[in-house]
DNA sequence: AGCATAAATAATAA
DNA sequence: TTATTATTTATGCT
């Protein structure tokens, strides 16, 4: 009385691979086990490069012709995809990833260029501060990381923010800088200077 | 004079800002380069195990005594932490991670048991809101985009949806609004105009 | 076959 | 640290 739930839908790799009956190979000779292994590996390597599914999708769309959405990458990694599609996508991903890793070895900058994102994409801040306000705050911070109460009041007034908010911003800013500067300062090793 | 610890008026921060580097070791003999390397490695290994910062934090809290929040793990990985704290935290993380990897080799189940979470926490099924519910939610949102916990509970009750689902809906709704209004001239601050 | 968005995870203002 | 925002992933739908 085993009624197939699939109702004619093509089963996904994930569904097939969890069935021990097939021994890792589907009826068309596709090695499902190999695909599963690659998918898992792909995710780890992607994360090691610090790339998001969106980035991979966009990069592939740019270099490989057809469109690869974030959803497509997601579904591949989760094996929520038909064996046929997976079989087709696998070599594309494999080739692309290998190249990406090559660029990464030459430096993080090269990778980001290869991926196609902006090299120095500005990070979005929490909404309490507008980007403009952050810029102004940083300018003040560079001049003086420890403003007096009077100065804080004036900055807050200029930016039209709550005084307390500005005070805490300086606190957090100093904290972050203090914590990270020592350890992180060595990251800039490929800067052309000695 | 006494040692000023408070974030408001420590005069040494300005000095820290422009402090020259010391070749990978700080004044207390901590190998910063080693910590940086480990932090990077830690993240990759954590992701390879498929663990979240939250899971690591909770597991550490359970096995190691003091509390380790998701934020703490995040800050360690980002090196947004003092060298002293990092030095203290590093061996704990190293030991824990090694053990986690050991359990993982014995099987995914063992790892999840070690981590202490539910064996296989499934992602919540994506809820579909009825058009009627969306309409009601939007009406509430227009009146108040940031309802209190009490209000959320009431709205959820009225619509007969899970409270958490409603809470997340407001989160995402705020997010969407923010993203779209960014395209237009945005106004983040409704405080007294200048 | 992929968009819209719900849910989950990471980062950060307080 | 905690509560919330920002970002990323996953999935219901057509």
Distance between the termini of chain A: 76 Å
Q: Looking at the chains present, what oligomeric state does this protein adopt?
A: homodimer
Give the biggest sheet of chain A: none
Mean of pLDDT of chain A: 75
- Overall shape of chain A: it is elongated
**Strand/helix succession of chain A:** HHHHHHHHH
The portion of residues forming beta strands of chain A comes to under 5%
How helical, in percent, are the residues of chain A? 55-70%
Name the chain pair with the biggest interface and residue counts per chain. A-B, 29 and 36 residues
- Spans of chain A with pLDDT under 50 lasting ≥5 residues? 1-7, 118-127, 186-194
| Structural category of chain A | mainly alpha
How many extended strands of chain A? 0
- Per DSSP, the total helix count of chain A is 9
Radius of gyration of chain A (Å): 25 Å
Keywords (chains A, B): DNA-binding, Homeobox, Nucleus, Transcription, Transcription regulation
Organism (chains A, B): Coregonus suidteri
Subcellular location (chains A, B): Nucleus
Domain POU-specific (chains A, B): 27-101
List the helices and strands and how they pair.
The structure is a homodimer of 194-residue chains.
Chain A: H1 13-17, H2 32-48, H3 53-64, H4 70-77, H5 83-105, H6 108-115, H7 131-143, H8 149-159, H9 163-184
Chain B binds a DNA duplex (14 and 14 nucleotides) through residues 52-54, 67, 69-75, 77-78, 80, 123-129, 165, 168-169, 171-172, 174-176, 178.
């Amino acid at each position: 009385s085993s009624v197939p739930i699939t109702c004619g839908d093509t089963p996904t790799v994930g569904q097939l691979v969890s069935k021990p009956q097939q021994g890792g190979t589907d009826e068309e000779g596709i090695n499902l086990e190999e695909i599963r292994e690659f998918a898992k590996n792909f995710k780890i390597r992607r994360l090691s490069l610090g790339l998001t599914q969106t980035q991979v999708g966009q990069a592939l769309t740019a270099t490989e012709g057809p469109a690869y959405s974030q959803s497509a990458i997601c579904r591949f990694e989760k094996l929520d995809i038909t064996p046929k599609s997976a079989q087709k996508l696998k070599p594309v991903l494999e080739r692309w990833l290998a190249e990406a890793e090559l660029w990464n070895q030459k430096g993080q900058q090269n990778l980001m260029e290869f991926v196609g994102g902006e090299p120095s994409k500005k990070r979005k801040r929490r909404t309490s501060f507008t980007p403009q306000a952050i810029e102004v705050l940083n300018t003040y911070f560079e001049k003086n990381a420890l403003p007096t109460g009077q100065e804080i009041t004036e900055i807050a007034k200029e930016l039209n923010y709550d005084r307390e908010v500005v005070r805490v911003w300086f606190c957090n800013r100093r904290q972050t800088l203090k914590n990270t500067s020592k350890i992180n300062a060595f990251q800039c090793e490929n800067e052309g200077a000695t």
